[in-house]
């Protein structure tokens, strides 16, 4: 063991990161929103969110929050891949309410560079202030990413 000020932490932090996106005026959102990019293990990553119509079991077609993690390589080569696991969270803004969380694991490629949920939660559920996920029209999304080393697959 060594205790020289976090060398191991520095190396692990390069493959882990947290992205955050605050969406103001969420009830009126009608287009795709991209969060700021963050470099994790040599690749740029972003949150992508949008309203989506989705067939919800036993409820029919409903408006939902589409919530995705997007991998954005610096150079758009056709032959790359990067495996990542992620935890997507709708952040609680009410004491006593847990964040709403879903997990993913995916091999990101040029053809599949985003991955997540077309219906992370229904729009109606998010807009119910008692549930605690919206406050003053604002919703906060967060993703914890653990990214593998990107590979060229030429």
UniProtKB/TrEMBL annotation:
PROSITE patterns: MATH. It comes from the Eukaryota. Pfam families: MATH_2 (PF22486). SMART domains: MATH (SM00061). Residues 16-145 form the MATH domain. PANTHER family: BTB AND MATH DOMAIN-CONTAINING PROTEIN 36-RELATED. This is MATH domain-containing protein. It comes from Mesorhabditis belari. The lineage of its organism: Eukaryota, Metazoa, Ecdysozoa, Nematoda, Chromadorea.
């Amino acid at each position: 063991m060594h205790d020289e000020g976090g060398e191991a932490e520095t190396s692990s932090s390069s493959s882990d990161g947290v992205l955050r996106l605050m969406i103001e005026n969420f009830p009126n959102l009608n287009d795709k929103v991209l969060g700021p990019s963050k470099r994790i293990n040599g690749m740029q990553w972003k949150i992508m969110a949008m309203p989506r119509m989705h067939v919800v079991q036993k409820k029919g077609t409903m408006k939902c929050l589409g919530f995705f993690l997007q991998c954005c390589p610096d150079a758009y080569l056709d032959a790359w891949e990067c495996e990542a696991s992620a935890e997507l969270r709708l952040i609680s803004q009410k004491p006593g309410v847990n964040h709403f969380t879903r997990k993913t694991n995916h091999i990101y490629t040029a053809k599949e560079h985003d991955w997540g949920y077309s219906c992370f939660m229904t729009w109606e559920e998010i807009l119910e202030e008692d549930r605690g996920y919206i406050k003053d029209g604002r919703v906060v999304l967060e993703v914890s990413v653990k990214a593998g080393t990107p590979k060229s697959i030429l």
